[in-house]
Predict the 3D structure of the following.
Amino acid sequence: MRVTFVMRFLGTATILGGIALYAPGGSALAAEVPSGFVVSHIAYALSKDAKETGACPNGMTLGNTQIVEASAEGQRHEGESDADYARRIQTAASALGTAPNGDNLCMHPESGAPDPHYRSVTGLNIPVDGIDLDGQDSRANGRPAPNTCPHDDFRGMNGERGIDNQFFRVVGCSNSFQSTGQSNTYEIEMYTGAWGILITLKGVHDLHNQKDVEVGIYANADPIELSPTREALANATYAVDQDPRFQATTHGRITNGVLTTDPVDVRFHVITNSIRLERPLQDARLRMTFTKEGGLEGIMAGYTPVEDMYNYQFGYRDGKDGTGKPANQRLIFGSANGAARVLGHTCNGVYYALKQFADGHRDPKTGQCNSISTQYRIKAIPAFVVNTPTQSVNSPLDKQ
Amino acid sequence: MKTAGKSGNVAAGVAVCAAFCLPLFGGSSLAQESARPPSEPDEAGSGQPMIRRLTESQYRATVADIFGPDIPIVGRFERGLRADGLLAVGTGQAGISSFSFEQYDASAQGIASAVVSEAHRGQLVPCRPHSESSFDAACAKQFVQHYGQALFRRPLTGEETERYVRTARAAQQRMGNFYEGLRFALAGMMDAPDFLVRIEMAVPDPQHPGRLQLDSYSKAARLSFFLTNSTPDAELLRAAGAGELNTDEGLARQADRLIASSRFEGAVSAFFQDMLEFDTFDELAKDPVIYPTFNSTVAHDAKEQTLRTIVDLLVTQRGDYRDLFTTRNTYLTRALGTIYRLPVATRNGWESAQYPASSDRAGILSNVSFLALHSHPGRSSSTLRGKSIRQVILCQQVPDPPNNVDFSVVQDSSNTAMPTARIRLEAHRTSPACAGCHRLMDPLGLTLENFDGVGAFRASENGAPIDASGTLDGHEFEGAPGLGQAIHDNAQTPRCLVDRMYRSAAGRSILPAERPYVDYLNQVFQADGYRVPDLMRAIALSRSFYLVSAPERGETKSPQRAQVQTRNGGHS
């Protein structure tokens, strides 16, 4: 199928992607093919549950409360009331969450030590979703790829070798990252309109094989449009974030109907408990296929800086409020400690695990890697993508 | 795709149309149109003075014009009565139920409270009492006369003024506050039939002894509601009081002033909302599983989209009415863009747009408003769309279906053996009882089958390509653009508009004796290039618009008769 896309202008807005209706010069296209997309589904690309794969032979990660409950001092005393017992457990759990120097470990995980109760995926033959980022199977010759650190690759869901997904290794033994857990359902935030992701393709002539395609990956500045049943609607219009930090373009190719792109740094928004954070992905690349509905489906993968990963996923430390100022510290403190308690991990445990399994952007001076391979499985549906300032209908209220 | 078989159906359709399509107006005299400027016939018939209930939009516009747009209206409005195809005609036939009156009273109390509130009294109460705790008769009288004239669209009689001042005094004595007294007086005026109902008064026509015409204030009201969809403003009431509306120059001055005002757009918009039956949007529902893009925002925006297109073309651009059916210019919001599959850069609000030349859309009949409104909750309807075009756009009557119709074939839109609406309707038309009417409706409606039940484009149905060919009075065409051009070129299209416009203005059906006058309006409309503002001006300036006749003997108990007697024997 040969298709052509066209740049159109609406006032001051440039349409970066949409449904191509005309070829330049006005000749009609044989078919409507989208060149703009909005991500409608996103989740970390992980694996099947540990119970099924045997990925966690040493058990699952525990939170501070569970650690205390499992200890000798956490056993219930004879005659101890429910309230007294709960209070004693929480006191002990809070103590576990505090560093020797008095720092709260969710706010300052580096003040603590690695958590011996933290569990990570140790198995090698576990099928994991994702793609090969560093271009080699780490077990093939025993030497890491340039600019990476030694790590164990996984095999893919279809048996392919060399899958770089160290983030799964960090969280794969966390109950909250199993299929029934809460940590991998953050696309719900996207459906509230808090953030979104846009993709554009330019220069596509053949959906099956094309040597060069210009690909745009942007943070969405507009809330996602949903149906009454909370499904993302196709053919809606979205504006790209006007901050250049949230705009990225790269090149790619289509081979046998599979779009793959060259690495590019991308950055998206995250909002948790009204705390505004950023989700960066270094050397990000897409490996996606075109669906029969006109959308894209596949993997977005890259390397997340360890500190950023800890901050937007676990600690919320560098969160901002709606005005761009640092968010309320009590809100951050409560959110990070609350999340650790509810989701069942220790902040220092996850922080040191991220550092331990970091495999990207090796610092030649220290030999340490500063980023961790991270893979997302995403689906995107056709949309019109415009490059124009946009604002909420309530924005004028901000000036009052 | 044209076939011999279809041609046969076309011929049959024309023949059936001759038997069943009942034009709602005559109009053979248009064949005698000449290049000579048309002149208004002297001996046109005339209807009786009307008593017409304010529509919801007129009530809201009136309150906003008199008190300002920030005065809230809390009551709910009873659904209007559609008569002879128009709510405007129904306003002369509908009564006021007890529920409706309760709602009017709730609105009146809310409005009056807001007007005399501390936040608004400084601006809206035209005088200051000597003391809030004692009654200031002079200030109360000034207040009553000021708002009484605005609300009743005429000066109050001395008796009326005294009645409402008494109300204010009694309320002040009971409530202990002067403004509370004004509140009750104002609410009383807003509950009065003189406000809620446009009561026309007749006086003898000095130029035509033995005939009647509307009195000056009734003229002012008819003129104002026709050209602004709201109550007469102070200048119009002044001109009425000065007798200026009884001269051609004075009437033209006021009509031109109102047409030039921003409120004129509201009148044009209100007329087309009525004509296109947009009041039924309030009950429009779609199956969210079948049509996930449809929601209340889309419904609201779809209606507004068509009205914006109409106002822009007819008023702003002063374009040809017939071009409404072919124009590709439109307005879009993000919500609509999802259905039209067009980009809309503006996140909140409207932006002008064009349907691409290859998009199969042209004219307001290819808008979501028409396509969704005349569809079922879960499927499109060629029949409803065709029927609406016949009745609403061409003013032709399509008989109701017989009561023993088997709809099972038509309603099964998932029948893969009959995948398209055309095939299903052809099967349905094998019933002789159905064939007659469907041959009128389907050839028009089927040309819009490329649009589903909410108006989104589709090339196929159940995997089968859609044949969007159709006919109108023997002319064959393809798809929505072809339909729009056929409607544009059809002589009935502008005549129907004239017919509806006059009925809306007069608030009643057209009398047989008025046919020469309507023919005159048709000539004016044609001569002026089918420009709606010019047509409305011609109606507003014509003598016939204000002529009324006395009721026949034996109708002395009718409201019209009563008002003629009251006015003639009272304060005219």
Observations:
- Chain B touches chain A through 22 residues (CB under 8 Å).
- Chain B is about 50% helix and 5% strand.
- Residues 11 and 547 of chain B are 44 Å apart (CA to CA).
